[in-house]
Amino acid sequence: MKRIFVAFLFLISVNHFSFGQEGILPLDSKSNAVYSDLGSVQLTKDILFQNAQKWVVKTFGNYENAVVTEDKASGKLVLNTYAPIQSAAYEYLRLTMTINCQDNKYQVSVTELEGIAKSQTITRLGKRQNDAIQEKSVLVKTESNRKKKTVAENELEEMKLDNDRVNDTVYGLLASLKQMMVSDAEN
After folding, report:
1. pLDDT on residue 186
2. Does pLDDT of 8 surpass 90?
3. Residue from 108, 122, 101 nearest 79 by CA
4. Can you give the residue ranges of the DUF4468 domain (predicted)?
5. Where are the alpha helices (DSSP H) in the chain?
6. 67 vs 53: CA distance, rounded Å
7. Beta strands of 72-146 (E only): which ranges?
8. Which domains does the chain have, with CATH numbers?
9. Bridge pairing between strands 105-116 and 122-124
């Protein structure tokens, strides 16, 4: 089981790095940033739900502040919380995470992502960030003035790095949840 888990994490990281290197956020049909994961674990819904609750406490500290909906009967937890981020543009990510537990599997989605800057400016994350990177890429390719091109290249790299940090933060949350969800399966 541990080998399968390690192989899975490797695939996630390979996919993440090939996706994240371009500084692009994954989008849903409404052009909002969205992340999801589906795990298959040979555990009951109740154990998976308990593992998800343990993960919330371990990751965010105060369970009551993070969880907005808790339905043990259906196996559903909804969090509306903050995650720190190491980014030039954002200090925190505000996100909604929905965890649905069923016998032998769970599904998690992260939606409604907002970047919160040190100035308390809130930015909804999605298509606008990806479009800005594409526009800046075109500008870099077409700019003939050496000084302006260098400035544009630096701005482009910073924009990509900000999106990569968002990806790193959210994929890190998903990976740590996956690790907690399979914890009883390995024993």
Report:
1. 54
2. no
3. 108
4. 43-113
5. 2-20, 45-60, 63-66, 127-142, 146-181
6. 9
7. 76-84, 92-102, 105-116, 122-124
8. 2-125+164-181 (3.30.530.80)
9. antiparallel
